[in-house]
């Protein structure tokens, strides 16, 4: 009987694996078609200055309007795109789209000059050989001022490619862009490396913002991250701020900027533009 049970389990297990493999294959094919059919688009989430809740910029976040599965979040397709290499094309689209949106804002409303736009770079994109050339050409073609574009690169990505990262970041900085280290606290940074990287901001991962409320120790971890950032001369952005208690704590810890549902959800470009004009 035990054997029978085990057999059943094995069957269920392989069926599930097969199912997953099929889903993966169809997703890979869909990604290819989606890229060809313009099914990807960007939404923009406001970033605010904590002391007065003043809007300072946006983070561009990719979405996929899938023809049969509906709206998909990055967590549902970025990992696979990263694995298959399709992220390179998707990433190019994101950068291109973000920069041309920014260019249009800048042209129609010169008063939006001080706002920045953050774009996420994946690991593969960061280590790809033509990144610098790609960024340079998109900036040139769209005519935006490079200083308004921030590239968000995760701590893990930077550390995985630490040897080349210093030089690469320096070249991006030379183009005039600013650099954020994203999801900070989730990777294993070496302090000696951190201070070599030419960075501008550090983004505290939302998991820490959430944990902060759970125990005083976690709050101390966030305090340590903020203080480390300041020692390195970086501004701190907290992501995933959902309530006023978190906001208050982060403010008390000296965090400069915040992003989260407390202020705004990611929104279409037109709403972001309107928001900017109200503030400008
Ligand atoms: P991330 O760069 O850390 O972006 C922040 C994520 O937190 C976004 O999720 C955002 O919608 C979410 N978020 C913001 N405020 C709150 C909040 O108050 N509560 C909660 N629960 N969540 C909040 P999203 O858009 O699903 O993106 C997830 C991740 O996917 C991003 O994390 C980023 O790593 C990646 N991603 C998004 N867009 C792109 C892209 O264009 N290229 C690449 N390579 N990765 C992207
Ligand atoms: Mg990000
Ligand atoms: Mg982040
Ligand atoms: Mg994060």
Automatic annotation (TrEMBL):
Name by which UniProt lists this protein: EAL domain-containing protein
Shown chain mapped onto the complete sequence: 592 to 871 of 871
Boundaries of every EAL domain copy: 24-280
